[in-house]
Amino acid sequence: MTKTLDDMKMVHEEEMQNYDRIQEAVTRVMHRHGCKIIQTPAFEEYDTYSRLFPQLKREMVKTIDTDGQVLVMRPDVTVPLVRTVAREYPDPHQLLKFGYVSTVFREFFGKSTHGKYFTQSGVEVLGDPTAECDGEVIVMALEFLESVGITDVRIDLGNVSYMHALFGSLGLRDEELALVKEYTARRNLVALKELVESLPVNCRQSRHCRTARIRREGYRRYRGNKAYRLYSEINKIC
Predict the structure, then answer these.
(1) pLDDT digits (tens, 9 = 90+) for 206-232
(2) CA separation for the pair 93, 59 (Å, rounded)
(3) Cα torsion for 195, 196, 200, 201, to the nearest 10°?
């Protein structure tokens, strides 16, 4: 019997039909909201991702080009998209809307039969910092799901700046902070709870770190705090 790579499999006709149906549905939503459909390069520089996302080092699929440079197969769409926009669209106030349906290559720990690659769809809206813009992106997410027949939906909102502000107040070592971010990104709440309980943080910090969300009552006396201001911005969207 011919041996195959672990977590790699052929996609059969029925699955291809489903992929095509889903891609057509979400692409129609993107076009309806004025997004331009793009495709980023299949290969990226390893150093870029290892510097910006060190937690992905073990998950990325690596290869070497003919010049000996280490490359990774597309582990993400946002980074190359934003880098290209910065080069080709120098006006930071220009409203840009991009959409994509791409195969990304990295270890996936969710429910998937394709452990080293999976299809990822999303939008990137640049040049509009308002809460209304965030609201439109959330609407698009709902319309994506509805377009493929999913109606029982729960959406969790997050903000990278808020997370940085929250983590920055914990006073953790780099390796501890890296683990907190990794477990949070993977939504591994069991490992996150065990880690937080072993860290030198107080009860209030521990509670917010475990839940990865801010509570209005917990920050009522910290109205000048960056995390509270970010929470207020998120609250406008809702």
Answers:
(1) 555 544 444 444 444 444 455 555 555
(2) 35
(3) 170
Give mean pLDDT, residues 111-115: 54
Q: From 8, 4, 38, 222, select the one nearest 107 (Cα to Cα).
A: 8
Tell which residue, 185, 182, 207, has the closest CA to residue 196.
207
Q: Of 98, 92, 159, which Cα lies nearest the Cα of 127?
A: 92
Residue 43 has pLDDT above 90, yes or no: yes
∠ CA(158), CA(109), CA(26), 5° rounding? 60
List phi, psi (to 5°) of 105. Answer: -120, 110
Asked if the 13-147 domain carries CATH number 3.90.105.10, the reply is no
Q: What is the mean pLDDT of residues 71-86?
A: 91
Domain locations along the chain:
13-147, 160-237
**Sheet containing 62-64, strands listed edge to edge, beginning at the edge strand earlier in sequence:** 43-45, 70-73, 62-64
Which tokens sit at 122?
């999303």
Torsion sign (Cα): 180, 186, 187, 190: negative
Beta strands in 46-147 (DSSP E): 62-64, 70-73, 96-105, 117-126
Its pTM stands at 0.70
Cβ neighbors of 126 (< 8 A, separation 6 or more) are: 82, 85, 89, 94, 95, 96, 97, 98
Query: For residue 219, what pLDDT is reported?
Result: 41
Which is it for the CA torsion 133, 137, 56, 74, positive or negative? negative
